[in-house]
Amino acid sequence: MKSTEEIKQYFIDKVASAHDLAQLEQIRIEFLGKKGQVTEALSLISKVNPEERKAYGERINTLKNYIIEELEHIKIKLEAEFLEAKLLAEKIDITLPPRNYSVGKEHPITKVITELRSIFSKLGFDYAEGPDIENDWNNFTALNIPEHHPARQMHDTFYLKEDKLLLRTHTSPVQIRHMTNHKPPIKIISIGKVYRSDYDATHTPMFHQIEALYIDKNITMVHLKSYLEMFLKLFFEVENAPVRLRPNHFPFTEPSAEVDVKCDRSSKQEIKIGMGNDWLEILGCGMVNPKVLENVGLDPNEYQGFAFGAGVERLAMLKYNIPDLRTFFEGDIRWIKHYGF
User: Fold this and answer.
1) What is the DSSP letter of 45?
2) Segment 198-205 long-range contacts (CB within 8 Å, at least 24 positions apart)
3) DSSP-assigned beta bridge partners for residue 309
4) Residue 20 pLDDT greater than 80, yes or no
5) Residue 151 pLDDT more than 80?
6) Class for domain 108-339, per CATH?
7) Which of 115, 318, 319, 336 is nearest to 327 (CA)?
8) pLDDT number for residue 256
9) Which residues, listed in sequence order, are joined to residue 286 by a DSSP beta bridge?
10) Residue 164 has pLDDT above 90, yes or no
11) pTM here?
12) What residue spans define the domains of the chain?
């Protein structure tokens, strides 16, 4: 029978050779398992003289506790070494050069829409929205557009299979919806996609439009001209933006006018707004037709107002010198890198 000192020394020699957790587990079984040396030594206590049993049992328990503590200590050490070796093997070499990622740019249409909303917010206009798919009433009839008008024809308008549903041809239906559900004073702008069957350097089947509407008592053409000049001055960031109104005809306004802004066309590279001796047509406007007010339940003898609208892409083309409307929607990365923000 080995003494406790012999078992302890044998354990110390044995555990010194353990280099991984599997070897350590084998040592634990060899000393503390069911047939381990400490377990066998403890089972022999009945063969020890009664006078020595107590001291013998204490020595065995002390040895057992020592082995348990040493095994735990060595286990923690081996686990730490294993983790460190794993981290070293899996570490990322941060000295490698980074991948080159190109940063995107804001599209000119997004830029201009943000600018327009900011400008009209400062001028006291609320923002209103409506659906792209409209009915005949909101898109045509309520706006005093007669049945025989060319805008209603298939070659101008995208009709859906459903009866009298279509892709809106302007954002004016937003005004009809808003006037139907709100009482004056009404002071709104609407910006959104509109759809027309056309495609060339200055027209696309889908484009963006902004329209402004101001309905109240005693609104006149003087108010209209004043807001137009303030809007164009703020948008083109010029000190002055003189405008002239040329008589025209729109079914939904009476009187109606085309708006020209003073400009300088002397340079082939750009058109300078607000200076020079030339004039440039930029948008349409007018006083809301009394029939339109009646169609939305407003009394034209009590209320009147103005409306004007422009193409967002056209405004962007003039402000940022973009020559072709179609390029806005072609998805050319080179184009967005050049004209983006």
Assistant:
1) G
2) 198/156, 199/326, 200/326, 201/323, 201/324, 201/325, 201/326, 202/314, 202/325, 203/325, 204/313, 204/325, 204/326, 204/328, 204/329, 205/158
3) 211, 284
4) yes
5) no
6) alpha beta
7) 336
8) 97
9) 256, 307
10) no
11) 0.70
12) 4-90, 108-339
